[in-house]
Amino acid sequence: MNRTMVMAWRNRKELLRDPLSYIFCLAFPLVMLAIMTLVNESIPKEAGMTVFRIENLGPGVAVFGQTFLMLFTALNVSKDRAGSFLVRLYATPANSRDFILGYLIPMLEISVMQNAVIYAVSWILSLVTGNPLNAAGLLVSLLVLQISSAMFIGIGLLFGTLFSEKAAPGLCSILISLGSFLGCIWFDAESLGGVMLKICRLLPFYYCTKLGRSSLRLDFGGDVFLLPLLIVTACAVLICTGAAVVFRTRMRADLA
Amino acid sequence: MKLAATKEMIRTEGLTRKYGAKTAVDGVNLSVREGELFALLGVNGAGKTTTIRMLSCLAVPTAGEAFVDGKSCTKNPEEVKRIIGISPQDTAVAERLTVRENLEFMAGLYSAEKALCRERTEKMTELFHLGEVLDQQARTLSGGWKRKLSIAMAMIGEPRVLFLDEPTLGLDVLARRELWKLIGRLKEKRTIILTTHYMEEAEQLSDRIAILQKGRIRACGTLADIEEKAGVSGLENAFVALAGEEEER
Question: Which of A101, A110, A136, B95 is most buried, taking the most CB atoms under 10 A from its CB?
Fold first, then answer.
């Protein structure tokens, strides 16, 4: 095993042994999925409200779950930085690439598992509510959503590197609230229009949800799939690269 | 072992580190031989940890240079890192990994071979008597066990130079005495640099001692040399006489 994979192995083990990661990354999104499905069942069809229909709710909750991966990445990195653990590792032959990929790889693996569970439950709920989801759509959406996952994990790495063990989770919580709200997970900004829609369109969260929903429908149109795909991919690349540069710079400063 | 016959393992030349206007380490010249246990004594802020950080490539000197086995800590840090191990002041262990996993994790950072990692893990388990807690998560260990694990982790890369930064800080008497025995066994095969506040610890374990005061070396030598310089007997009295004298100025 090379050093990157050794670092990834350690981070994966520590995350999977933390009960809080199951509560926040899995249980909470699943509870929201179940509650909002019940809410949807209570909404009269004449209301024309589609945001909580399972084909929209499933991808929305998948993106919501990804925001908690950001929180746990930030927690993991900031905790390591707070004590002497990273100092000890800095004195080994491991380099910054090993550290950065060692943090990112297990989170991406967990993201695939998390989204797979959310989509599996969404599929079961869709059968129960008599509106079965397309299996191919679920698979495509699961794959495409890993790009937005990389973006959130990159933000987590950035926050964990820049902020303390106490500040990083707080800032991530703000971003989780903002992300789920402005990502239009719980409301339909398109039907609202106006300033709200303009604000949502300025941030990448809206495009993450849109990408998840369009890919689930196997709708690969320019506006609903290609544009969000381009924006989310660009954001993921920029944020992950930025986070890696910041981590490397901080590491050099720590060793100066 | 006659230390004078062994080769020089650590050398510093005018080693200096400044943090803004504050000079933490000021022109330190040291020479430590292979197989020697060298203790750095000093009050808080005397420059012990900063000296260790520079020797283990965790901080860059503002002036001067440090060499480990003839390799420059600033010019060849990668080579130096392959032959050193460090046990930091805090017990830096991965809390949710078991003792065995912590050892395997550190071994993996030094060697890509799984068989070698396992072999080294077994060796450290035996040397540090970690068998009874091997499958326990580190967060459930007592302070003494954590310290033992921390030193075992520093040793797993089979370093030729081991840095122990206040290894017995906060431990009870029994745990401290047990660690002393362990450190005593380790020093037979490698160079150890130890920082400590405990005079008894330095007296019991070290071959030579350096007293640091405000980043400078006030005295360096065997216990007898230091007692002679201070004109009193006992390390604690000598330390108070030498370090206290400077404080009063």
Answer: A110
pLDDT at residue A28 greater than cutoff 90:
yes
Instruction: Please tell me the distance in Å from B144's CA to the nearest CA on chain A.
Output: 17
Residue A51 has phi, psi (to 5 degrees) of -60, -30
A107-125: string of b/e by CB count within 10 Å (b at 16+)? beebbeebbebbbebbbeb
First-last CA distance in chain B: 40
Rg, Å, chain A Cα set: 19
Cβ of A92 within 8 Å of Cβ of B90? The answer is: no
pLDDT in tens, A179-236: 999 999 998 888 888 899 999 999 999 999 999 999 999 999 999 999 999 999 999 9
- Shortest Cα distance, chain A CAs vs residue B161, angstroms: 12
Q: Considering only the top CATH level, what class is B3-83+160-248?
A: alpha beta
At residue A256 the predicted structure's pLDDT band, cuts being 50, 70 and 90, is: confident
Token pair for B22: 């504050």
pLDDT of residue B248: 54
Q: How many domains is chain A built from?
A: 1
The pLDDT tens digits for B102-144 are 999 999 998 868 899 999 999 999 988 999 999 999 999 998 8
Q: Does B139 touch chain A (CB under 8 A)?
A: no
When pLDDT is averaged across residues A45-70 and rounded to a whole number, the result is: 93
> Which chain B positions have a beta carbon within 8 Å of A17's beta carbon?
96, 137
- Minimum-distance CB partner of B105 among A6, A18, A256: A6
State the first-to-last Cα distance of chain A, in angstroms, to the nearest integer: 30
User: CA nearest A253 in B: which residue?
Assistant: B59
Tell me how close the Cα of B105 comes to any Cα of chain A, in angstroms: 6
Q: Which of A118, A158, A134 is nearest to A34 (CA)?
A: A118
On the 0-12 / 13-18 / 19+ scale of CB atoms within 10 A, A190 is: middle
* Three-class SS state of A159: helix
CB of B86 closer than 8 Å to CB of B165:
yes
Average pLDDT of the residues of chain A: 94
> Which residues in chain B come in under a pLDDT of 50?
none
Split at pLDDT 50, 70, 90, the class of A111 is very high
Closest CA in chain A for residue B159: A92
When CB atoms are compared, the residue of B78, B86, B93 closest to A93 is B78
Q: CB-CB: which of A2, A91, A254 is closest to B84?
A: A91
Domain map of chain B by residue range?
3-83+160-248, 91-158
Taking contacts as CB-CB distances below 8 angstroms, the residues of chain B near A91 are 56-58, 81, 84-86
Instruction: Mention every residue, 6+ apart, whose C-beta is less than 8 A from residue B182.
Output: B127, B128, B148, B151
Distance CA A82, CA A94 (A): 19
**Which structural domain range is residue A216 located in?**
3-254
